[in-house]
């Protein structure tokens, strides 16, 4: 098989890129090693920046997002038994975020991919990249026991942190920067009507907790656990007890309880691979970087990576120049590192670190007290949370 752009991975990065290329008349083939059901049912991100919402609408896949997405004008920081509201819209000249599950994003994008008639192969195996530094890189894979290969002009490595694209780059041609955190998040989906209109980030002496949602009937909740925690250790009863201990405020606010329909543990790390390119292989999304989910940046960074990549590919196919493609890595990394900084800052502000003293705990309380009483500090949080301006050259 031959295509202009081979895409490895059908997560948000790969699917958004495929849709952008399709609308530019550029052919692509997407290969995904999991099933359609697995990719759709995987419970992950929940917060879309304004830029990501605008992109989905511009790509013609935003209809359901507009109908079912939950626009939020602000969020709460909760500490010392009280919730403090940050009006994100007021602090950023009207920008908001939208809560819409990543699995819904993926569902909409898969439907658009199928409607486009462009190739999307699930359940592929043994995916490998050949000759990435040549003018004719190849993706080889097995499908239904049959070997196959795709000759490409370019390959987009959108296969996430555990994919094969980044490791296929020779060690001397890529460098990674990482930090593992001494905790993880235990996350649940509960059949319970959200008891707050907007998100509540909680700093508690027992650890971080987060109240989010997916719909008027589904609450999404997380709390900090040790990094090697096992989900089987936690009964539903114990999960609710811990969640309510950390989140209930002095005025009586707390999440509504309900049946837990999904639970998992997410490790926390910061990771960046530089450069995000090797020859004609371009890394995008989690394949190139990971942020702790505290700043709700993961999915949104994937979206901006592929916006830059799609612009560069469109310029190549319309004007024959690699100018934007040659700047791809540097352009993306400027935004990636700012998102890393913000995600690290939110994480260290709101989590208890093992081995820290009572002094540190009271320092963190003072930090939050300052943050929620200073317009400058709240504005800084707000402009990062809603998404920094997309200061990247697009065609
Ligand atoms: P993805 O990992 O989503 O997609 C990569 C795709 O490539 C997957 O479908 C995978 O099956 C496929 N793939 C892997 N190896 C392959 C191979 N060899 N061949 C073919 N296909 C292959 N972000 C937030 O903003 N908020 C959150 O709350 C949040 N929670 C998260 C929870 C978990 C458990 C994880 C892992 C991530 C979470 N994230 C969160 C981050 C997440 O949303 C990512 O940023 C987002 O999925 C990035 O999208 P992609 O880059 O497309 O990578
Ligand atoms: C979510 O709704 O899953 C969510 C919201 C905000 C975060 C992380 C996850 O920072």
Which shape, going by the Cα principal axes? globular
Report the portion of residues in β strands: 25-35%
Beginning-to-end CA distance, first to last residue: 29 Å
- Unique bound compounds: arabino-flavin-adenine dinucleotide, P-hydroxybenzoic acid
How many beta-strand runs?
Answer: 19
Mean pLDDT: 97
CATH T-level fold name of the domain at 2-71 and 100-179 and 269-354: FAD/NAD(P)-binding domain
How large is the count of helical segments? Answer: 12
The name of the CATH superfamily of the domain at 2-71 and 100-179 and 269-354 reads FAD/NAD(P)-binding domain
- Helix content estimate: 25-40%
CATH class category label of the domain at 2-71 and 100-179 and 269-354? Alpha Beta
Structural class: alpha+beta
- Overall CATH architecture of the domain at 2-71 and 100-179 and 269-354: 3-Layer(bba) Sandwich
**How big is the Rg?**
21 Å
Oligomer: single chain
Largest sheet: 8 strands, mixed
Q: Spans with pLDDT under 50 lasting ≥5 residues?
A: none
